[in-house]
Fold:
Amino acid sequence: MNNNLNTDDSWKQNTGIGNGGIRNLGNNNEGSYNVGDGNTGRFNIGDENTGEQNIGDSNIGWCNRGYGNKGFCNYGSSNTGDHNIGSNNTGDWNGTNHSTGCFNTKEEYITLFNKPSSWTYNDWEKSSAKKILDDCPCSTVLWVPENEMGEDEKAKNPSYKCAGGYLKEKISTAEDKQRWWDNELDEEEKEEVMSIPNFDKDIFKEITGINV
Structure:
């Protein structure tokens, strides 16, 4: 009878804490062989990856070198598609950014107000109009601590006793947006928004609720 069986479990040890897997250098990993923290998958060097073999962070897919990818084998970031070198691609095998197709090396022009335009999505992201409209009131979620809650709020949200408060959704109305346009923007800012290529006041009102 062999009494010299190897019972050394050191190969299973994690360097970090709170790991469910094995051979993790980071913390709170469910998967194995992770260098970062909070990974569910395996063989990740970044943090909070659900997929496997990712070098970046927050990837759901596999074999990504960027961040926030849902697809596979992307070198860029925030890709939904696969095998992209750029970022923010919905399609596959693109060497550019913001492409919905495949095998593209030039960034596409986008439609604005239902018509083709001379802008790329990158042009829109860098525009003054986008920066202005980013401040337009929108629905959001606010944390309301227990000491600021009314009796009705406590009755409708009994979990506040454990949480110490509750999350309240603040809905922005068309009237809120119209007041923002009328009272908080100067004429130069309004002109900047209305200078967006193909600007159509009826479409703008339909989407935002703002009558220019």
Q: What stands out?
A: The first strand starts at residue 109 and ends at 112. Strands lie at 109-112, 115-120, 140-145, 165-170. The radius of gyration is 25 Å. The chain is about 25% helix and 10% strand.
